[in-house]
Protein 1
Amino acid sequence: MKKIKLTLFFVLISLITAGSIFASGGNRNGTAGASQLLIPVGARGIAMGGATLTNATGLDALYWNPANLAVSDYTTNALFSHMNYIADIGVEYGAVSTTLEGLGTVAISIKALDIDPINVTTVQNPDGTGQTFTPQFMVLGVTYARMLSDRVSVGLTTNFITEELGLVKASGVSFDIGVAYRNLANVQGLSLAIAMKNIGPQMNYDGSGLYVQATAEEYNRPAQFYKLETAAFELPSTLEIGMGYQYAFNESNSLQFSGVFQNNNFWGDEYKLGAEYNFNNLLFVRGGYNITPDLETEQNIYGLSAGVGLNYNLGGINFMVDYAYRQVEYFDDNHVITVGVGF
């Protein structure tokens, strides 16, 4: 009973907090920073349109809902993923987890953007100085999750964020909190989940690139260096509520449907729909779609998503390979490949 009360308390606090954090969602589109936090990872979740708040498990769940990290058939897991993102940007992701008996499950993850070198330009050299710099965007996550009962799990991720653009950089911290409830109302296969993500203090840039040489006209002194002060920016926080249902036709065939409502503090509301067919826990076929009714059609550049997955157990070691495809307007379509192992 105490565990159920704790779950209900978390849900209540999440909904109350969301009223103040997300009240201006959609009114400040594109003004948040640390947008790499919003880049999804994992072929399975992307193939299902991001509607995996309830049914992603193990390391697959780290980005979507940290509570489901605790749901895994294996004690130790590792996962690696690569995505061809927009504008020739690559997204590299890796994570490992282990379950500590009686304590819960812990995981470490890292996400980094692979961006080609950019030419350095100045007012005097608009075509380039011959120098280049490589932007670096990275998120290091530490996650803890625990089963409160055979149905309820909770999880917390602490993300350490770093950004570097030439001679300026910013760093910060954010938190993801999630809760998941399986077999809701004693209905086998029905699940409910809530997650609040990217909650944290503001960030701002600093570094030697902010020094400029100027002359103070009101003072009798030569030109000297002055440091520009940068404005702080908020994190792109989100609140997500999801439900899922899995129907088993027989021991070898099942179909899973899931939906997620996502409220953003710097973007319009999103409705995510996904489905997955499972054959003998060996072959998976997936599809998904996102709906953004509050935004103009051209503002949402993502379309249909789809993917397949293979899962094979060899001598007690489980191997998993997933692929996802997502339609993108104005840029090349996204392709994602994920490889995982559990034992």
Protein 2
Amino acid sequence: MFRVNRWLRLGRQGMFALLGVLLVVGHVAAQSTCPTMVDEALKGLDTACAGLSRNQACYGNVSLEATPRTGVNNFSFHKIGDIVDVTDIDTLKLEPMDEAANTWGVVMMALQADIPDSLPGQNVTFVLFGNVEIQNTSTGDQTPMQAFTLKTGVSDAGCEEAPESGVMIQTPTGVQSVSFNVNGVDMEVGSTIMLQAQPEKDLIVSTMEGAAVMQMPDGTAYPVICGTEFSIPMDAKMQPRGIPLMPIALRTSRIGNSQLVTQMLPRPLKTIETISSAKMILLEARLKAGLPACGVGELPDCVHALRDHGTRIWANIDAFATPLPLPLSTEDGSGSGGLGKPPLDTGQPAVPTPGRPTRP
């Protein structure tokens, strides 16, 4: 009896060990599908969207749900390679990465924005990927999708080889800048940027090339230079609520492997670099004083990418909210850099300035 029980115990232990091995192998196999999915989906854009023209959207990869504007008939946007006029779109809702179902929503758009009709071959490229919902809010005096409301996932990369959900935007060579309104914020972009947004959190602008300017409804303008990330607080309806913090150094953990996405753009980016600690300190000092933030010292020379409107109210120290007294460290070890702290100065509390607004 003892010998039988012993063999039964050994048998059960062996079964559990085998089950454990199978689970580990299955998990590794599931993980390995993620980079393949990303690579195949993005490479497929070249073929699927080869016929894309101005103010058109292309279904790049499954899965997504498209809703046409009222009165639009014969709207077909259901499979890879389908192309529709952007003016016919009311909403697009892309699905996040699902390895089990082998789905990851991807859409490419070529938009006119405010590029003159005299430049018909020049378009702004949008690539939407992952958990993204976009609603066309353009009015009669705007070009298709020149104004839109955006919601995305954040910190949701399926693997190290995948980017987080978001929208990549690149302006064409030879065009100084283009303008959009996103979630109630006027944006001027002369670069390559990535947008992410969540209700009651932030609209996040990450600049990978060139520069961008965010202009709030009160007229205050905030520059977002190459290698930095800028966050604007959003309410439940995805509209601005309050004032931003100081920009921070671009976080590689947030961007993930977004360089894969940039390879699908007309102007591929060889590298995506974050701003250094020394440059971040200089940038903050100039922003606090309301001084130009481009081309000074070792800061990127990005003024050429933006139009000189002359009437902008440039942000100064009073136009930035003070962060709550929380540690500056972030998930990848870089600090927020807010209010004079260098971006790699971790573990130090940010002390609120008396009399100035504090971000909730």
Protein 3
Amino acid sequence: MRPRPFWHLRLRAAARALAALPALWLATALADAAPCPPAPAVPDAAQLRAAQAQDRGLLWRLERDGRTSYLYGTVHVGKPEWRAPGPQVAAALAGSEVLALEIDPTAPPTPEAASAVTGAASAAGAAALVLPAELQARLARQVAAACLRDGAFGGMHPAMQVVVLALLDARWLGLDPGLAQEQTLAQRARAEGRRVVALESVAQQAALLVPAVAEAALAQVEQALVQLEDGSGRATLARLVQAWETGDLATLEDHALWCQCVRTDEERALLRRLNDERNPALADGITALHAEGRPVFAAVGALHMTGPAALQRLLAARGFQVGRVALQR
């Protein structure tokens, strides 16, 4: 059985990697076609006040060496009313001097970063992939369904294309990849003079998305197209975002059951590579920043807080006193 992509995990990597593209890419790539995903509704003043009075996501307090840092679980899409964090998350950020993210979406794009995204084949050590005609036709239909212009992806590897398409599909749920928590937190931190640090590189993120073996890449593209065509990827993302918004860690912990994507040895290995195997390096990065003497606010995808290798567990093993913060809902 071919492994089903962990689309909720790959979406996160796509959102981060997509940030490396020039800011005008999406605007110039969008076609004047219909029907297209609606633009997120602009909240009125009352809706904004209500949103700012409510916390979203998951937050842990990290205490070591007489200092308090924080670990915040995110999703990599957002809504306009989520631009401002809730009161307790905002207070934790205000009490920190360093914002640590998997990558910094507000950093000026570099040629190396853009190349890692658009030419993800080289980033993953994979050869260029030529799709069979039937698969290419299905991909073209999804490009049109996303309201992208012909040629919008240029020479981007097909495996990266379908991940970006799945990310853009979140727009049908009223979710905007440009309003991800990493984006809004980084903007806020920079405006307030805080240091922003990337725990990983764009090249590392892009390499996660493109299998080096052509057969595996073809299988990934095909499975991704199935989930775009039948709506299952959108449904999985909707449930993931709802669990994140309400701080439902139990549902996130059980995602391997309800996503129906962890059924074979191959799928379990893929989950470990996309999530668990990255956690030790993320924990080391957070620990090193905290050891520099300045409180850290680390914002990392919420699924990194699940399972035996959860980040909060690894940080506890590194000497932190770790406690979940009961957020105001």
Protein 4
Amino acid sequence: MRLVSVVVAVGVVTASVIAIAAASTGDATPQRLDAKIITAGNGKIALVDPASSWLISVNPDGSGRRLLARCGRSFTACVIRAFAWSPNGRRLLFFRASGLRTYSSYSLYVVEADGHNVRRLVSCGHCGLIVGSRAAWSPNGSSIAFSATNGLFVVDVNGGLARRLTRGLDFDPAWSPNGSKIVFSRGDSLYAVNPDGSALTKLTSVGRHAADPAWSPDGKQLTFDGPDQIYVVDADGSHQRLLLDGSRGSGPGTPSWSPDGTRILFFNTPGTPGAFTAEVWVMKPDGTDQRRLYHSGCCVGSWFPPIWSPNGKSIAISADSAGGVLVMNSDGTDGRTLSRRPSDIAWQPIR
């Protein structure tokens, strides 16, 4: 499953095929969402339009479009990707690469939620592209962990040099809820390290490739994907369990916990090479009560991991075979189109 998402990440970057509905692309205005989808705790959804190199935010009903970041007119190429809201929803991090050497000239930026004060924190080379890796906020919002080709780093949001934590092809950092550990992927294993780079510990291994680690809200467990598999493991690396096992290239993958910790959301692409479809499922943390929330027609090419709303009452999914970005209730009902084409997505918490 990870292979599919890597191909998508690179393909989206190189082809620049994503466009946001009702932006500068000429797409029709998105349908309005039912009012019950817009509930307390949920802010705007961030999306990116590579056609215009705009990072925007929009309300879940399609209204309130706001420009957050763009590239200067002098740049011959520009890519914005892998963005995430801070825990309090007041800032957004993103990677941006500009110029002729786009694929090796990424920098990490932050911007205020209203689009003001775009700041570059660090220039980091391939950091925005490596294996589709994302960056992670510390729970208090003061620091960001990110991957580069030569290790894992942490940078202070208020300024300062990036600090190296590890050396190697390390990616997908995930900060524990209490801020004491950063878990990341290295080859077929998950590792944990303290935010100061000490106490590097191997947690688990799946034999081929481990990726997309996600902490349970209480910090007691992690879920992650292997080669078309989903696992759960205790925070200390014990009691590793295989929850789902799929056929090669079909998923499942990219698991994430609901805010209340009672469900795991994941993406699936059943089918055969050249004829995969897009599905979104939920299950309990023990692998039971598996329910399919969405199924698209053939064939999925570009897709991004599905996400929970901050209050857990809604989800957003993104795939070309789904018709773009969809927002729906967490039981799969009342789905509405937010964007006519797929995009990376991040949902702002309001606290």
